[in-house]
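Thread title: Can someone regenerate the structure for this chain?

I was given the following input by a collaborator and told the matching structure tokens would be attached. They weren't. Posting the sequence so someone can regenerate them.
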Amino acid sequence: MTLLDDRGMQQYLTDGYVTVQTDFSPEFHRWIRDQADEIFETDGNPQNDIFPRIPELGRVWMHPNVRGVLTSILGPEYIMHPHRHCHLTRPFKAAQNNHKDSYEDDENVRHHRSRWAMALYYPQDVTEEMGPSAVTPGSQYYREKESVDGLEEVLLCGPAGTVTVVHYDLWHRATENQTDEKRFMMKFLFCRMAEPQRPSWQANGGPEEGFGRHEKICPHLWQWYAGGTGSGNDRIDSGRVLDLTQIFREGSEPERLDAAYALGAVGAVEALMEALFEEARANRDENLKRKHTNVSQLDAGYGLSTAGVAAVPALVDALGDPDWWVRAAVVDILGDIGLPAQTAVPDITNALNDASAWVRRNAIEALGTMGVRAKSAVSALAGALQDDDVRVRHNAALALAKMGADALNAVPELEVATKDENRYVRGLSRIALDRVRS
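Best answer:
Regenerated them for you:
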């Protein structure tokens, strides 16, 4: 594999994407493109079946440059998610609006830490006139369109065989195809299967100073990717905490994020928890109304994740809150903290009995993030494969996949789930069984 170096990893954290080249022959890429063209013209869009219809695509994803980028970003145990899609931009097709992709048959919280990534492969030369994908560097940290409008987008042009790996939450769009040529792009989704405990890229000396648009975000994420844990032990006076709390309540989205990370870095857990309760109440109805949005999409969570282990006791206490939307946010944040929150595994496991499907869904994802550290929850996760809510079943299968051999006792339930009515539950259950048995 050709792993990213420090500069490449810094680019990914700053811009949200990295582009590499494959060195297959032009004939190979032309053959892929011709196969896709024939499938579309004969049968229409094959959706997730593009990979079994063109299994030679596996050579692209196994290329040393592509594997190196995915390993650097997602760790060596990453998997290919069952969601795969071939995008065709026909001649003279209009441009898309700028957007983030939704999570397939799920509503995930938009986390800054990369546990998901997309890879975009072009099987033909792409010029600016052919309607290439456009990405907005640095936009992966924002949810509000107003925060992105002032940023300059970049067109992903290049020769056949170009692959761009992007943060799943990066804003992007297909641009207008101004030619009479078809433009194909294969978009595949990949998942992290274990939390970082050391750098998975070719680390040598660390990042350059002052990278990214925000003082705290990228340096904190660099530490997380390298296996560090937030401890909230920077120092700051109480007056500055009050100032940051006020900015968090009244500022723009970029200002709120800066304030949240700064409060987390100094361990201002009490102030962040108060902000979380306020934000959860204020945003509940809007988050429920928004399509593809988790009710726990709250900016205070970024600060509490930054505080790390220092925030765990207060979050565990809040699991008893009478409001389900608070409980749902709390288990999500414990999951985003990851391994430093492993003492909360019994409390998160108890949340699988919650009456709210949102709480159950977020709790299951949190247990999956902790992986083998949450193996005591295997029986409960196996039972969740029969939940009425597809989001719960989807995440239960992925959580068990992350536990690998430690999920051996869940094999009977996983075998049943391979016949689930939902294609992603079926696919992830098969992946879980493969990882258990290997």
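The first helix runs from residue 6 to 15.
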